[in-house]
């Protein structure tokens, strides 16, 4: 344990910091208090997956930051039909924005359907409810 404590101190001094990951924060680890405080010396964050509501809000904020007006039903429709990881959803928004700009049309459900039916670089699953084809 003392070796680990010394190693932690050496890494912080030599490298200016370190990054670790675990299921519990340092204060809850079953280690000596000195090591727990050393490990938790800097910023400690808890990462969690985004809920559907959080992802939808992130998409709305992304649209607002771009200054793009979109129909109110667009984000829920995309959330029901596209892969729900934020990277894919933002890439889809980028593609929709470019598609709308190229056609000089506002972002709408009709435009999203047009883009999704024209083909995308990723697989779009069927709607979660009903399991049928894209409407």
How does the overall form come out from the CA principal axes? Answer: elongated
Unreliable sequence segments: 122-135
- Structurally, how many domains make up the residues? 2
* SS element count, helices: 6
State the share of residues found in helices, binned by percent: 40-55%
| Radius of gyration computed on alpha carbons | 23 Å
Could you state the order of secondary-structure elements as H and E? HHHHHH
**Through-space gap between termini:** 61 Å
Q: Would you report the number of β strands? A: 0
Give a short overview.
This protein is mainly α and about 140 residues long.
Task: Provide the descriptors you would attach to this structure in a database record.
135 residues, 2 domains
Helices and strands in order, then pairings?
Elements: H1 2-15, H2 33-39, H3 52-66, H4 74-81, H5 86-103, H6 109-118
Helix pairs in contact: 1-2, 3-5
Describe this structure in words.
There is one protein chain. With 135 residues, the chain is mainly alpha-helical. It is 53% helix and 0% strand. It is built from six helices and no strands. The chain has helices at residues 2-15, 33-39, 52-66, 74-81, 86-103, 109-118. The longest helix is centred in the last third of the chain and has 18 residues, at 86-103. Residues 122-135 have low confidence and may be disordered.
